[in-house]
Amino acid sequence: MPTDKLRKEIVLNKEEMEIIKKRMEKVGMNNMSAYIRRMDIYGYVVHVDMSDLKEILRLMKINSNNLNQYTKKANEAGNVYQEDVNELLRNQQKLLVLLGGILDQLLKID
Q1: 56 near 98, Cβ under 8 Å?
Q2: In sequence order, which residues have a C-beta less than 8 Å from that of residue 32 and are 6 or more positions away?
């Protein structure tokens, strides 16, 4: 990919500038150059709310830590309680449901 940066100046009136700023705000962008470049090249900007993914990541870390603790316990003691395994399975099922919901939302994006 070329590293040469080329400059192109555009002239906007106040109304056009306000429209662009409002659209940038709507999609969560604050860099006008990046916004205009994306709109010009791709014709659209997709804004994805990542809060659901952050929550899933948090839950996955918890589940992973629990799994590591249960594995360590099984290696040390030679056994694991069935309820511990069931809890891991329930947590894993919750994660799969959440991920399925996010995938459904992503598939709806045109």
Answers
A1: yes
A2: 20, 21, 24
